[in-house]
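User: Hi! I'm working on a homework problem where we have to compare a predicted structure to a textbook description. Could you give me the structure for the chain below?
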Amino acid sequence: MRLAEYLEQNLVIADMKAANKTEALAEMTAPLAALSVDTARALDVLLEREGLGTTGIGDGIAIPHGKLPGLTRILVVAGRSLQGVDFEALDFKPCHIFFMVLAPEQVAGQHLRILAQISRLLKDETFRRNFLNARSAQALWDLLKEV
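Assistant: Happy to help. Predicted structure tokens:
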């Protein structure tokens, strides 16, 4: 399985403007409107999940995720915050790298495999450095479509 199968160029945000967790989640759900996704409900689902415990896993990384009724496929949004977002991460440091995963309710196994793939990818220090240092939105997309 390749992560690139679940990514689309219009779902990559190269320069997030959010300053906090709620703003970051809203910014990452916003591009889903073009896919006829109920972004308000998506934001609610993500905030509910964050209420169970932060998905800011440390090392500047957050992987917010949830199951959204009515989806027909898994959606992944990648985001980069150059200034960092207070995402209430486990290490109390700002997050710069975001991968948001929304899945239909009936595909739990695939949802977990994608989260595991993202986690493995983000353990690679070279990938993280390349993600953060991509010079443009196109360069970031070029990096992501290869994974």
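For your comparison, note the following. The chain has one domain: 3-144. The domain at 3-144 is CATH 3.40.930.10 (Mannitol-specific EII; Chain A). Good luck with the assignment!
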